[in-house]
Amino acid sequence: MAMYRLGCDVSFWQGCMNWAHARQAGIEFTFIKATDGTTGKDPQFGINWLGAKDVGIDRGAYHFFRNNQDPRLQAENFVNQLGGVWGELPMVVDVEDKGTVAFTAARIMAAIGAARPTVEQNVRTFTDRVSVLTNGEPVMVYTSPAYITTYFKNPSWSQYPLWLANYVSTAPSVPSPWHPGRIRYWQFRIDVNGAFYGASSPKIDLDVEF
Length: 210
Prior knowledge:
globular, 6 helices
């Protein structure tokens, strides 16, 4: 791990981060939750967004994607929350099974209530709309290997940078259509000691940058 930059991802669950403490603990970048669905806004986003910048931690914002909500309106909610400040890292669409790590087909379908082609189509609609609204800012996909295998079938996804959630001790495997060269970030640990990294909560997730 020493050759890679260490980062964390946070939302209101981590509260108001002590970013100076995070920096001292080795955090060099962060992804901060901005929005959720068509109207949700993370209440800690503003203070964490500014706080990370104040101590020189690179920032990226992420949107929690709800497949049963209008993807265009979700994109607009996301972009509006950022107010024209995109951060130092790519913008992210977080595509997952409501934050769980039990990625079974039955749970995924129950959680988001849509057929496989609809998920892929809606995520693409979201990324396309964000690109239009931001004059071409890149959007990175956050998801898991199981989700990729289940939902992301179009070869063109390989052109999108990938933030992969995969909690293994060695380098993660990357299902098609992505390939290892497109991984930009790897969420490799979850629920580690939050206080050590400056969180107000007991737990925080860690990432590395390739």
